[in-house]
Design brief:
Keywords: Glycosyltransferase, Manganese, Membrane, Metal-binding, Signal-anchor, Transferase, Transmembrane, Transmembrane helix. Pfam families: Glyco_transf_6. It is found in: Membrane. With about 325 residues, the protein is an alpha/beta fold. It has one domain (about 40-330): Alpha-Beta Complex (Spore Coat Polysaccharide Biosynthesis Protein SpsA, Chain A). The chain is built from 7 helices and 12 strands. The chain has helices at about 1-25, 80-90, 110-120, 160-180, 250-270, 280-290, 325-330, and strands at about 40, 45-50, 70-75, 95-100, 125-130, 145-150, 185-190, 190-195, 205-210, 245-250, 295, 320. The strands form 3 sheets. An 8-stranded mixed sheet has the order 3-11-9-10-7-4-5-6, with helices on one face. Strands 1-2 form a two-stranded antiparallel sheet. It has a two-stranded antiparallel sheet with strand order 8-12. A hairpin with a 2-residue loop joins strand 1 (about 40) and strand 2 (about 45-50). Helix 4 (about 160-180) runs antiparallel to helix 5 and helix 5 packs across helix 6. The protein is globular, with a radius of gyration of 24 Å. It starts with a helix and ends with a helix. Bound molecules: uridine-diphosphate-N-acetylgalactosamine and manganese (II) ion. The site of manganese (II) ion has 3 residues, from loops. Manganese (II) ion (MN) binds near residues 189, 191 and 246.
Length: about 325
């Protein structure tokens, strides 16, 4: 009886050993599932995942695709292992532009420190920090493959103009510099922090982000520019989404086209002494109405905790840092 148990235990051990050896031989130290059919390679590492057709629609509580077939990025809709392998294979380089003019330099430290934890981890990243106060930009140790580029620029008196002029400054460097250094640009507000992963799932030819204050609102309540005299004008019966001014991007060429359009529209309005209600955001919304984004980031990518946390919001990846508007803008 004793002897039978021992033999049984030995056989189990032997079988496990052979399986472990075989698994290591084929896969190295990676987690293995016994279905070798669906494999991607990340370098030399084999990665396995279920066959896409076997998945039920991962989300049915939110809109995940637009009528022009652009994906809307929500948690649960994608596999970051597949995406990372794909973008690493392409050796993609990403530029993150951010403006810290006047007192907004206070946001830079948290912004970059949290980006190091959550933004495009494992990929090549250039931070482009536009500032009028280069001496106030802290020295932050960055991971390998990432660098900080400080761009010294003038400031403007009104905060609205500081915000709007970002379009011109991004446009100008797109053809002068960014096109030589990176493949994609991601353009964001600085008064923000990353609190969960923001990875290559966001990348596409040209992408915008749903504004957290207008998710699920009807068209009429979008705060588009409604005066027909403005270049940013959108009629009451048009418009797909209300996009946020604080998070857009795409390939260098597409970002060039977007920022060029917005800047020119602003300049035309300026000549006519008109400025759109929500500044750069209004012109961005106009652009996206007639140049549809090829991907849309959900409210996970731009949240403000003052709105609470709705059920459909499974991750808060990039959130507003509370600020005293009066104090910081003057
Ligand atoms: C999260 C989001 O969608 N934010 C948008 C929203 O307001 P916000 O209230 O978030 O605007 P804001 O005060 O953050 O200004 C926009 C950005 O301009 C820069 N800045 C501004 C003032 C200044 O003195 N120094 C400086 O550096 C800074 O990068 C800041 O993040 O509407 C703005 C236009 O009204 C812009 O479209 C913002 O992108
Ligand atoms: Mn902001």
């Amino acid at each position: 009886m004793e002897c039978g148990k021992k033999t049984f235990a030995k056989s189990i051990l032997l079988i496990c050993g052979v399986m472990a050896f075989y698994s290591f031989f084929r896969n190295g130290w990676s987690l293995q599932v016994w279905n070798p059919k669906y494999v991607i390679y990340c370098g030399t590492k084999r990665m396995l995942y279920p066959k896409p057709e076997t998945l039920n629609p991962p989300r049915t509580d939110v809109l995940t695709i637009t009528p022009w077939f652009a994906p809307i990025v929500w948690n649960g809709m994608y596999n970051s292992d597949i995406l990372n392998a794909h973008f690493l294979q392409r050796g993609v380089r990403i530029g993150l532009t951010v403006f810290a003019i006047k007192k907004y330099t206070v946001f830079v430290k948290t912004f970059i420190e949290t980006a190091e934890k959550f933004f495009m981890v494992g990929h090549r990243v250039n931070y482009y920090v536009y500032t009028d106060r280069p001496n106030d930009i802290p020295n932050i140790t960055l991971a390998e493959g990432r660098q900080l580029v400080i761009l010294n620029v003038p400031s403007y008196q009104r905060w609205q103009e500081v915000s709007m002029r970002r379009m011109e400054m991004i446009r100008d460097l797109s053809h002068q510099r960014f096109n030589k250094e990176v493949d994609y640009l991601v353009c964001v507000d600085v008064d923000m922090q990353f609190s969960d992963e923001v990875g290559v799932e966001i990348l596409s030819d040209v992408f915008g982000t749903l504004h957290p204050g207008f998710y699920g609102s009807d068209r009429q309540s979008f705060t588009y520019e409604r005066r027909p005299e403005s270049q940013a004008f959108i009629p009451a019966d048009e418009g797909d989404f209300y996009y946020a001014g604080g998070f857009f991007g795409g390939t260098i060429e597409e970002v060039y086209k977007l920022t060029d359009f917005c800047h020119n529209a602003m300049m035309t309005d300026k000549e006519h002494n008109i400025e759109a209600i929500w500044h750069d955001e209004s012109y961005l919304n106009k652009y996206f109405l007639y140049h549809k984004p090829t991907k849309i980031l959900s409210i996970e990518y731009l949240w403000d905790n003052s709105f609470g946390v709705p059920d459909l919001l499974k991750r808060r990846r990039f959130v507003a840092v509370p600020k005293n508007h009066e104090a910081i803008r003057n």
